Amino acid sequence: MDVREMIAEERRRTADLVESLDTEQLRTPSLCGAWTVKQVMGHLVAAVAGANGSAFLLLVRNGFRLHRANAQLAAKMAERPAGELAAMLREHAEDPFCPPIVGYPGQLTDLQVHGQDIRRPLGLPHDLRPDRLRVSLDFLVGGRAVGFVPRRRPAGLRFEATDVGWSWGSGPAVRGPAEAVMLALTGRRVALAELSGDGVAEFARRIPAPDRP
Fold this sequence. Notes:
One of its GO terms (molecular function) is metal ion binding. The protein has helices at 3-19, 23-26, 37-49, 53-61, 66-77, 82-91, 103-122, 130-140, 178-185, 200-205; strands at 158-161, 166-168, 173-176.
């Protein structure tokens, strides 16, 4: 399965997930900054269905501050009913758009990380696929993860995903399940408790709080 097929399947899985949630679950704070579960879903839909003139206008109005414009677009998209958001994500599951710099691995990583931003606070199993986790881990440490991982965060450390046979880097070790390594690399401090090794303390110092979208 190539990365585009992985992306399409993850979009459909996310649509199924959100469609299964009740109103209280949709209002639950996610792991992603101040966003609710539904607003995270709004972001995922906006990323594929909101690439139009209105998205660019928001970017201009926010002085080309991407995080701020992105948050506003997600919130606006999240005003729609959850069923409509799920339908939009399914409709665009196979959208061929490839974002600059981060490419398809960035899209896959966005889906996997934000999927966990939804599932973890709700106590739902992640069921992430090892091959997809490897793609995201390679992407996050590969130098193209603009907006995902500051370059200095993984520098000088060795990361080991103990459940998928993946490793990268040299120096004090940071090891644990692939899902936890992925989340910690992207700034989710909640995953630090699942990591071990003599590099964890230094790694933790490089992750600010609170988490950002």
